[in-house]
From TrEMBL:
<dbReference type="GO" id="GO:0006820">
    <property type="term" value="P:monoatomic anion transport"/>
</dbReference>
<dbReference type="GO" id="GO:0022857">
    <property type="term" value="F:transmembrane transporter activity"/>
</dbReference>
<dbReference type="InterPro" id="IPR036259">
    <property type="entry name" value="MFS_trans_sf"/>
</dbReference>
<keyword id="KW-0812">Transmembrane</keyword>
<dbReference type="InterPro" id="IPR050382">
    <property type="entry name" value="MFS_Na/Anion_cotransporter"/>
</dbReference>
<feature type="domain" description="Major facilitator superfamily (MFS) profile">
    <location>
        <begin position="35"/>
        <end position="178"/>
    </location>
</feature>
<feature type="transmembrane region" description="Helical">
    <location>
        <begin position="33"/>
        <end position="51"/>
    </location>
</feature>
<dbReference type="InterPro" id="IPR011701">
    <property type="entry name" value="MFS"/>
</dbReference>
<dbReference type="InterPro" id="IPR020846">
    <property type="entry name" value="MFS_dom"/>
</dbReference>
<keyword id="KW-1133">Transmembrane helix</keyword>
<protein>
    <submittedName>
        <fullName>(Mediterranean fruit fly) hypothetical protein</fullName>
    </submittedName>
</protein>
<feature type="transmembrane region" description="Helical">
    <location>
        <begin position="128"/>
        <end position="149"/>
    </location>
</feature>
<keyword id="KW-0472">Membrane</keyword>
<dbReference type="GO" id="GO:0016020">
    <property type="term" value="C:membrane"/>
</dbReference>
<feature type="transmembrane region" description="Helical">
    <location>
        <begin position="100"/>
        <end position="122"/>
    </location>
</feature>
<dbReference type="Pfam" id="PF07690">
    <property type="entry name" value="MFS_1"/>
</dbReference>
Length: 178
């Protein structure tokens, strides 16, 4: 295996990370396309978590809630989503967009796993509270993606990379509908 052309001792890179700092072969996929694929996947996951309640509404009807409660369930998510839009720009500049994006998608996924348990064991109020928190986590995803693209992608490819990453919600829509 070939070694990197620079000395890792100069840059104070730990010896266990030297493998990651070796020279990348020229025929490999550029990192910006891998980043766009990861942002595409993050938006895909967030959208599926947003619409999964529509599938579960049949099970929620079996809990004998009123029809007005079931009709108002999708709006709980958007309360959280809209409440963090302005705050997410500050959080992205303070913590970094990649960490923020990872934390929001992970947190939203864990909340999505816990939603049925919250409804069964703690009632409808806990379900609504978790749905609002999930909306807060998902409301940060789109501004973080835009900020990451603005800082990181080359100017000539910015519209292409942004279009590919934002195509996820359209693709999700067609898969969910059909």
């Amino acid at each position: 295996m070939k070694r990197a052309t620079f000395s890792y001792l100069e840059y104070r890179i730990p010896s266990y990370l030297v493998f990651f700092y070796q020279k990348v072969p020229e025929h490999s996929i550029p990192a910006r396309y891998i980043q766009v694929l990861l942002m595409f996947t993050a938006i895909l996951l967030v959208f599926y978590q947003r619409v999964n309640l529509s599938v579960a509404i049949v099970a929620l009807n079996s809990l004998e809630e009123t029809t007005t409660t079931n009709a108002s369930q999708p709006k709980f998510h958007f309360w959280g989503t809209f409440s963090v839009q302005l705050l997410s720009g500050y959080l992205g500049s303070h913590y970094g967009t990649v960490k923020l994006l990872f934390g929001c998608v992970l947190g939203s996924s864990l909340i999505s796993i816990g939603l049925p348990f919250a409804l069964i064991y703690f009632g409808f109020e806990a379900f609504v509270a978790l749905r609002v928190v999930q909306g807060c986590a998902q409301g940060i995803v789109f501004p973080a993606v835009y900020a990451h693209l603005a800082k990181w992608s080359p100017l000539k490819e910015r519209s292409l990379l942004g279009g590919i990453s934002q195509w996820a919600w359209r693709w999700d829509f067609y898969v969910v509908v059909y």
